[in-house]
Amino acid sequence: MGPVGLSIYGSRDHASGLVPTFVTVPDARQSVVVGHLYLDLVEEFGVDKGSETGEMYASHTALRRTYTPDLNPMEWPEFVALKSVNNVAIENLWKWFVKTFGRSLRDYIEDGKTNGLFNPGDQMHIHLFHWLWSKIVQIQLDQFKLYWNYHTPRKNSKKTLVSGVAPIEIYRNPQAYGLERLSRPVPKEAIDALRSNLPYSREEALRWVPDSFDSAANDAYAILGSPKLEPRRGWEIFGLMAQLLQDWEDSENSDV
Fold this sequence. Notes:
Organism: Mycena venus
Largest sheet: 2 strands, antiparallel
Strand order of the largest sheet: 1-2
Pfam families: rva_4 (PF24764)
Protein name: Integrase core domain-containing protein
Radius of gyration: 21 Å
Distance between the termini: 26 Å
Shape: globular
Mean pLDDT: 85
Number of domains: 1
């Protein structure tokens, strides 16, 4: 849709099938963005090869060598480079997300091409699209992650790893299924130190809109009564907010 877009970045534990993170970000091909997402993962859980994974690789390697010196990198490699199409664990997840939420979600978003509400040449509309639809998409991602981690898949006798058990159960109790937990706790100070080495902060890396617009949009959303953010109402809310944000746009244009 011209100058707007929503990137999705996810991670998945291969052994259990658990999805630790599934987020929408301004640009999933920026190394710094992925670096911060990786450190988010480490901070919460204790612990495809492209240019965007450079910062993640550096952080992961540093943490492995510091906190798991007992793990032989020849047996347990610090990092394995794969083409995205060969990263089966995460690529398979996209299929299930599309089947569960993704296709209709994309259809709702692309209604903006024909409904007359979105003007790709209007900077306020571009900001509002990113402010509003990033929130709607993230809610859908959170719902899918919750469903996926707690759902019980069918038993698959051809699968080498555990099947027929909810991913969250395998992840929490790996020893009950013949698996071993190799992760190590990482002090928050170490995570903060790695973040400080990234070119810019997490807030900057994951910022969708300027602070002035974010403040104005929050006010407009509150005036509307903070309606439930769901795909089927997305463009309705967009249209109402666009009317309220006209003053913000006028003030921005007057400052130019």
